[in-house]
Design a protein that fits this description.
Blueprint: H1 19-30, E1 35-37, H2 68-73, H3 79-86, H4 96-112, H5 120-128, H6 130-146, H7 155-158, H8 162-171, H9 173-199, E2 203-208, H10 217-221, E3 236-240, E4 250-255, H11 259-264, H12 268-278, E5 283-286, E6 294-299, E7 309-312, H13 315-325, E8 331-333, H14 341-350, E9 354-357, E10 379-382, H15 391-397, H16 401-411, H17 420-429, E11 435-437, H18 440-443, H19 473-485
Parallel strand pairs: 1-2, 2-5, 5-8, 9-10, 10-11
Antiparallel strand pairs: 3-4, 3-6, 6-7
């Protein structure tokens, strides 16, 4: 199943790592499923709608995912503090007011716990994560007063002059402890959930965005790894050329890597980054895997993404380093869109499976790799992704007459709008794909109102959330029955 943490039901504005996450894992296990795929778990920003793909740190955990209920059960927050959090008017998922109230709750709890100063678990956490935690805490604390666009900070802070950094650490000492303690809470709760999933036979598929946000601790503290000018501003930014989602291409705005510098260090930063994520999840979907072969660089002064050009990337050397460190390379390559042979060769060289999306599989193209009959044993099949409409929304609003006729041919009957999701999940389960991922919206047969993201748009994304009690017992029971009919069942004993 594909479901981001924020989309879980919650009383606190954002889905979190608490009881509903445990309930979801238990439902997966009871339905004899094997995988739960989430979106990136990094801290997010209000200015980018809290998009999980706009990471202000590639190493930190999103504090908005911390469960107040677990904090109460562990004695790290009292009921009066939770009541205060619940006392305000509720707003839509991802609203600034909800986020501010949640962060104030966490900061108050940090103060009440004396910033973990007497907690040996926190001391261990700080020691184990110091290589990124100190810079992240400092970046976050400075950003509270100066904003996240670090190139606008005073030159000594922007350029990380040692004396200025030391002075800022001294001045912000308590705030740094606060940020670090909140990270400790987040990682502790995540580790507990991950262990629960493993005990129930559920592997968690994480998501690795290719780039951090410009407004991130990573870019600020590792300027030499990115193409920036002398004042720290991007010389070029990332995106993609015109495609299925946008006629002018997509302007992501992330600074692109200086691959020469990264290669000169034997890719140590990348090895560290991947190792960090694989300590948190069991498998990684590599977003925009195309960027391991060549990246679309857009001049920072360009008017549209269409003005960019492809720049080669030393992906083979990078993946060789990663394979030496992580021999199994538990990756899934996001290889959607126009993929050239060099990308296919890179995936084949390291045995990395790609993605297929069933929604794309019903045109009359005889070479369509997403067609049900073309799905092989070397791919992971999705009914849809977080960037697509739901199956029902696609069928009702987007599918062409040709696609509807093709679906009728594949199913052997005219599909009904209210059953199309169920039909296509069944179709997916009976392909040769060894792994099938279903967005939970498709399990519930929801329409376009449940869509998670519309690429190349800037409003209304990342806000969808399950209702309390969803998925329901009958949803899990249906999925379990289908799984057994398709001989795809899995049990924790395996």
């Amino acid at each position: 199943m594909l479901l981001h943490i924020t989309s879980l039901p919650s009383r606190f504005g954002f889905g979190d790592l608490g009881p509903e996450a445990i309930r979801f894992v238990a439902g997966l296990s009871e339905a004899h499923q094997r995988y739960w795929q989430v979106l990136p778990l990094h801290p997010t920003e209000q200015s980018h709608q809290y998009s999980p793909y706009h990471a202000t740190s590639l190493f930190a955990f999103n504090p908005l995912l911390i469960s107040p209920e677990i904090m109460v059960s562990e004695g790290k927050a009292d009921q009066s503090l939770v009541k205060r959090l619940l006392s305000g008017e509720h707003h839509v998922l991802g609203s600034p007011r909800e986020a501010c109230r949640k962060m104030e709750f966490l900061r108050t709890a940090a103060r009440q716990n004396d910033y973990g100063r007497d907690d040996p678990g926190f001391a261990r956490f700080r020691s184990e994560h110091r290589c990124w935690l100190d810079d992240y805490a400092l970046f976050s604390a400075i950003s509270e007063s100066r904003g996240t666009v670090w190139s606008d900070w005073p030159d000594p802070l922007r350029d990380r002059e040692p004396a200025a950094i030391e002075e800022e650490r001294r001045k912000l000492g308590t705030s740094l402890e606060e940020e670090q303690f909140i990270q400790f809470l987040a990682f502790s709760q995540w580790n507990t959930l991950h262990e629960f999933a493993q005990d129930h036979g559920i592997c968690i598929i994480g998501d690795l965005p290719l780039y951090p946000a410009y407004e991130s601790a990573d870019v600020w503290s590792h300027r030499g790894l990115f193409r920036l000018d002398g004042k720290g501003r991007p010389l070029a930014v990332a995106g993609v050329p015109p495609d299925y989602f946008s006629a002018t291409g997509q302007w992501w705005g992330n600074p692109v890597y200086c691959w020469e510098e990264i290669a000169a260090s034997e890719f140590s930063w990348w090895v560290h980054r991947v190792g960090h994520l694989l300590s948190m999840v069991d498998c990684l979907r590599i977003d925009h895997f195309r960027g391991f072969s060549a990246c679309w660089e857009i001049p920072a002064s360009a008017a549209t993404a269409g003005e960019g050009h492809w720049v080669p990337v030393p992906g083979y050397a990078l993946l060789s380093c990663l394979a030496d460190r992580f021999p199994s390379l538990p990756f899934i390559a996001e290889d959607l869109g126009t993929i050239t042979q060099d990308v296919r060769n890179l995936m084949a060289a390291f045995g990395i499976p790609g993605m297929r999306v069933l929604q794309f599989g019903f045109n009359r193209d005889p070479n369509n790799p997403h067609a049900p009959e073309a799905i092989g044993e070397d791919v992971v099949l999705y009914t849809g992704t977080h960037d697509n409409n739901t199956v029902r929304g696609w069928f009702e609003e987007e599918a062409s007459l040709e696609e509807r006729e093709r679906i009728t041919s594949v199913l052997g009957r005219l599909p009904e709008s209210g059953k199309i999701s169920i039909d296509l999940i069944g179709c997916a389960f009976h392909t040769k794909a060894p792994v099938v991922i279903i967005p939970v919206q498709d399990l519930l047969d929801l329409g376009s109102g449940a869509r998670m993201n519309r690429p190349a748009t800037t409003e209304g994304n990342w806000q969808w959330r399950l209702q309390p009690g969803e998925p329901r017992t009958e949803n899990w029971a249906w999925l379990r029955e289908l799984t057994f009919r398709a001989d795809r069942q899995f049990s924790a004993a395996e």
